[in-house]
Amino acid sequence: MDLEGDFTIPKGELFGIIGPDGAGKTTLFRILATLLRPDEGTVTVEGMDIVRDYRTIRTVLGYMPGKFSLYSDLSVRENLEFFASVFGKDVKENAGLIENIYCRLRPFEKRKAGNLSGGMKQKLALCCSLIHSPSVLLLDEPTTGVDPSSRRELWENLAELRDKGMTIIVSTAYMDEADRCGKVAMMKSGKFLLAASPSDIVSGFGKRLASVRSDDMFRLLHDLRSMEGVGKCYTFGDTHHIILKDGTDMTEELVGEQLVSVYGHTGVQVRRIRASLEDCYMNLGEE
Amino acid sequence: MKEFFAFVRKEFLHIFRDRKTLLVLVGLPTVLIVLFGFAISTEIRNVNIGLLSLDDDISVLRLMDKLDRSEYFTYVGRFDSENAVNEAMRRGEIDAALVFPAGFVPAMYGPEGAEVSVLVDATNPNNASMEVMYLSQIIYGYFGEDMQAAAMSAGHSGGGGRITPNLRMLYNPQLKSSYNFVPGIMGLILLLICALMTSVSIVREKETGSMEVLLVSPIKPINIVLAKMIPYFVISCAILVNILLLTIFVLKVPVEGSFFWMILISLIYIILSLGIGMFVSSIVRTQITATLLCGMIFLVPVMMFSGMLYPIESMPVALQWFAQVIPAKWFIEAIRKIMIEGVPVRYVTTEILIMVGLAVLFFTAAVVKFKDRLD
């Protein structure tokens, strides 16, 4: 995997890495976790080089891989105690940090980890990677395969941890989660295209964006793409988003009129909208 | 150290929670020992024997009676022609027959001596040769006594004294097959548990992803692997005790040599097998390859080339050389010598040194190959 990019993650930041599957997120996390050595380039964690000082880094790092399976034949409590003792720590002395997450698991303490629901498993995995109070927390796609309410809870937990001064790096394929990060880096096939705060990314979107709907959404997509003055067109939820090309006199009103008169669409709605993070992501690497 | 013991505890929990595997681990040696000891025995038992004798000599009939009373033979009946004997053997009614020519007994006391034919169904050559051996032993013994008694009562000595071969089966006078199988089964089972189970349990952590988390922790990765070995070492020792108890008290195979050295050699072999398991786990990524590698490279050759089933000496030279690198071969040989032959330990120093050398080799290779990263 080739990774290209040069950026710094400030201490105490909740930093999101966003990119589709295969963008290189897991490779990046493994490099940060000292598990892979880069062929070229340097990476430092807490000022320490990941190749030279990997032993020291491993004591301050909390790492939750995307495919982290707990020991399914051990109970919730046994898993937690095992991971605490691996770091030479006691569950009690670090209970404060995980209390807010662990309180949801306490009723199931004696249950085998293999019999937990997906969301509960992720919570337990998070507890296990936090039990030694790391100063840097790496979470590789922690919300994949987790239901929406558990996802929200997880992000709330992460925000609390950030408030306690922990540096957290999270990867996700869900755009809506990126808004919760202090800063996000967008990745596409190994390249870092942009690293900034979500609001800066959105306000830096310099194109005219509109959402379009009609009664025949499938034909609409095709027709919009054949229209002059319409740049990019892609589906977005139950509407289509279009970029109006700069330097043309194409407007939303004109698009609507043409759709009715030239293409014979009914129920046409065209609205000028503000860009979301996903719009920014879709239009990255275009220019 | 606290981290280390937490690991050991976790491994024990894994093993004891997986009851089915544990049952197989403990049950398999028991079943194998009992199976090889009783059911799959190469000893001969209940061989049906017929008689073809043209005279009605009392001493021949007494011989048949004696054979019938032994646990090896059952006297089926008397036939009146060679054809009838052949027919009975084809029909499977008899497995062996004794043919006494006319005038056998008088000729026996004469200067020329007499001949008795032993016919054996040699479809199973092993059984046949064993039957011949047993029969000739009994016949020699029986008529030897008879001739001595006759010489005594006739009042003269020296005349008619014939040299008879005196066969003795050293170390295993009853030719019990368990003498051969017990060391073999020990070699097989201990390798199975130590090498296969250890490597699979280490590789499982790689496969499920927990190894990634364990690597990113302050614990020395090599300790992760060592902690995995301790429970399997303990279980192997328990199984060793189990095998020995079964061997001594159920199969009634006596331990002729030093008990201490036998245990020590077994411990060396257990450690060697753990080294093999660790080496395998350091070069493979999935449980299935670990199983195949242990099975194909280590277990099957143990059956074939350790001398457990086939004697190494009768193999082609190339295969004999190959057999020398099978770790279990050295263990089985050493155990045979100590346990069955009862020789002092200085006669097995070669075997012990080779096992120690192999153990050092495998552990070094495993440590060199062991990676504390993923690349």
Key traits:
heterodimer; A: 287 residues; alpha/beta; Rossmann fold; Alpha-Beta Plaits; 6-stranded mixed β-sheet; 4-stranded antiparallel β-sheet; 12 strands; 20% strand; B: 375 residues; abc type-2 transporter like fold; 4-stranded mixed β-sheet; 14 helices; elongated
Low-confidence runs of chain B: 157-161
Seen as an oligomer or otherwise, the chain set is: heterodimer
Total helical segments of chain B: 14
Distance between the termini of chain A: 24 Å
- Quantity of strands of chain B, as a count: 4
Structural class of chain B: alpha/beta
Number of helices of chain A: 10
Describe the main β-sheet of chain A briefly. Answer: 6 strands, mixed
Overall 3D form of chain A: elongated
Distance between the termini of chain B: 28 Å
DSSP, total strands of chain A:
12
Round the Cα radius of gyration of chain A to an integer and report it. 23 Å
Helix- and strand-based class of chain A?
A: alpha/beta
Characterize this entry briefly.
Chain A is an alpha/beta fold and 287 residues long. Chain A has helices at 25-32, 54-60, 76-86, 95-102, 118-130, 148-163, 198-203, 217-226, 252-261, 277-282; strands at 14-18, 44-45, 48-49, 61-64, 136-139, 167-172, 183-188, 191-196, 208-213, 230-236, 239-244, 269-272. Chain B has 14 helices and four strands.
List strands and helices in order, with pairings:
The complex is a heterodimer of chains A (287) and B (375).
Chain A: E1 14-18, H1 25-32, E2 44-45, E3 48-49, H2 54-60, E4 61-64, H3 76-86, H4 95-102, H5 118-130, E5 136-139, H6 148-163, E6 167-172, E7 183-188, E8 191-196, H7 198-203, E9 208-213, H8 217-226, E10 230-236, E11 239-244, H9 252-261, E12 269-272, H10 277-282
Parallel strand pairs in A: 1-6, 1-7, 4-5, 5-6
Antiparallel strand pairs in A: 2-3, 7-8, 9-11, 9-12, 10-11
Chain B: H1 2-17, H2 19-39, E1 47-53, H3 58-69, E2 73-79, H4 82-90, E3 96-100, H5 104-109, E4 117-120, H6 125-154, H7 178-208, H8 210-215, H9 221-250, H10 259-283, H11 287-305, H12 317-324, H13 327-341, H14 349-369
Parallel strand pairs in B: 1-2, 1-3
Antiparallel strand pairs in B: 3-4
